[in-house]
Each structure stands twice: as structure tokens, then as C-alpha cells.
UniProtKB/TrEMBL annotation:
Residues 1-23 are annotated as: Disordered. It is found in: Cytoplasm. The keyword RNA-binding does not apply. Homodimer. Residues 24-62 form a coiled coil. Belongs to the GrpE family. The gene is grpE. Keywords: Chaperone, Coiled coil, Cytoplasm, Stress response. This is Protein GrpE. It comes from Thiopseudomonas acetoxidans.
Amino acid sequence: MSDEQNPAQEPELAEQDTEQAQPEIDVNARIEELEAQLAEAKEQVIRAAAEVQNTRRRAEQDVQKAHKFALEKFAGDLLAVVDSLERGLEVADATNETLRPMREGMQLTFKQLLDTLRRYNVERIDPHGQPFNPELHQAMSIQESTQAEPDSVLKVFQCGYSIHDRLLRPAMVVVSKAPAEPPVKIDEQA
């Protein structure tokens, strides 16, 4: 009877088969769960790496801007000196021989100051005769003109300046407009 199986043992074998199948299902479910967790962790690592890269890039851009515009306040303060020299040159009588050496010295100083500003990418905006641009010019008044196109700069009170293509100070200007039409006379006797 050893070769023959006991009918009472058959239910036990059926139970063992069920028990072995159950752990396989649990193992497969656990594998799927762990794979999902692994995929989520990989995605978080990729996001974290991207965030670090973005932060590094922003920091580099901030440093570049700081280097580029570090002189902005200093250059803005020097513009008062440029304006004073320019006004002094405008009022100094060019025909007076006693003022000639002083005027020449002021011209050289003015030129050196503008050249120095230019070396540091501070550019002068002198829009005389150009179309009015509200992004670069500040209109101080509007004047009728037959010689200039409407909305063009007739006179510059104070030149503007930019640093690395960023406006430091707008140019103060007088803008032209078309002359007003004379009133039409109506012949009342007709």
C-alpha cells in the first residue's frame, strides 16, 4: 500500500497546492508594487536633478546680471557730472579768448568721461531728429513744426543713457506735432 496513495491524503495535497499558488500571487503583487515604487522614486530623482540644474542655471544668470549691471548705480550718479560739464560747455562763450583754455579743458574732460562710460557699456542716447520713442525718451513738451515730421524729436534738453541695452535714464525731449489748420473763414455775406 505504500505505492498507493491514501484517499485521506488527497485533500491535504490539494490544500498544499492552493497554499503554494497563494504565495505566488502575493509575490507577483509585491513585485508589481515594488516596481511601481521604483518607478516613482526614479521620477522623483529626475525631478530633483532637474530642479538642481534649474537652480544652478538661475544662480549663474543672477551672477552674470550682477556683473553686467554692477556699475548701474555708479554710472547713474556720474550722469549729473556729465550734465554739468555739458551745460558748462553750452554757456561758455566760444568767442571769448580768455575762456578758451578753460573751455578746451572742459571739452577734453567731457570727452574723457564719455569715453570712460562707453568702455563700461554706458551708451549716450541723443535722439535729435529721430522719431519719438516713449521707451527711450521722455517728452517734456510738444511743439508745432513745419520743418520736422510729426512725432519726431525737435530738441533734446538732456541726453539719455543706457547700460548694456538697459535704459539708465530717458532722454528729455521736445516732440514735434503737425501745425494746426487755420480756421476756415466763412463768408457771411454770401
